[in-house]
Amino acid sequence: MLVVVIIVFVMMYMSPTMIAAGKNARRVWEITALNFFLGWTIIGWIAALVWSLLATERLDTKRRTDDLSVRADPRMPTRSLPKSLSGSARTTPNSQALR
Questions:
Q1: Residue 41 lies in a domain
Q2: CA–CA gap between residue 1 and residue 3 (Å, rounded)
């Protein structure tokens, strides 16, 4: 029973960090430091909680979908390709020669 109480307490104490990490916040490490070192003061924990709730998502270059080779949905229209290539039946000079 004591183990369950400790686990619940740690999860509640670190909830601002978990919220910031779940939102992929830009300042997740700063929120974690504030939460860990000043969370024992109620004001520090509330500040970390508010900061994690107001945090914006990090711009991650690995998750960008505006690259031509990576699209979230293959049915999405491509804006940077010419109209002749943006249709469903894409042809290349080599595929025309093979026909």
A1: yes
A2: 5
